[in-house]
Design a protein that fits this description.
Elements: H1 2-39, H2 42-49, H3 51-60, H4 63-72, H5 83-86, H6 97-107, H7 110-122, H8 126-139, H9 142-162
Protein name: Phenylalanyl-tRNA synthetase subunit beta
Organism: Paenibacillus sacheonensis
Length: 163
């Protein structure tokens, strides 16, 4: 009887570890794809040019992270003098990659995410891109979308500075 209980606990432990591993692997893969796509688009420049987004970054991230992100994208105009304005600014919904992964996983099932990743990897028509964008806008608020984009930019910037 004790052998069965130990075996059952061992299987449950392995299953839990496997689930957590798969969860993080899928989240990392999605974050990498989003970071690559955003970094090489004009959307990143438009996002970083938005004063509200700059305030969100400055009020939510450490000054080192905010300066690195704003500086790496060529937006040095975000000076410390703007921090007074940032006090009343909206804050980022998610502040790091792990929180971003949790948010995305709470809004989409693993099957939906795999399907979207396969579509992106296989190439999409303009109509399919618009359909996916609409799907994302339906599930995420504007603040959530902006926060996710900022996190993706931070991850892309980290990868570029590491590699």
């Amino acid at each position: 009887m004790k052998k069965w209980i130990v075996m059952l606990l061992l299987i449950a432990g392995i299953g839990f570890v496997g689930y957590r591993y798969a969860y993080h692997m899928i989240g990392n893969k999605i974050m990498d794809q989003v970071a690559d796509e955003i970094l090489h688009s004009k959307e990143a420049d438009e996002l970083m040019a938005d004063p509200e987004v700059k305030q969100m970054i400055q009020s939510s991230l450490s000054s080192k992270e905010a300066g690195r992100l704003l500086g790496s994208l060529g937006n040095q105009g975000a000076s410390s003098g703007e921090n007074g304005e940032a006090a009343g600014a909206k804050t980022m919904v998610v502040k790091n990659k792990d929180e971003a992964i949790k948010l995305v996983m709470s809004k989409f099932s693993i099957g939906e995410l795999k399907g979207m990743a396969a579509k992106v990897k296989g190439g999409m028509t303009a109509e399919e891109k618009e359909e996916m964008k609409q799907r994302l806008e339906d599930r995420f608020s504007k603040d959530e979308m902006d926060s996710l984009k900022i996190i993706a930019l931070m991850e892309a910037e980290k990868r570029n500075s590491d590699g």
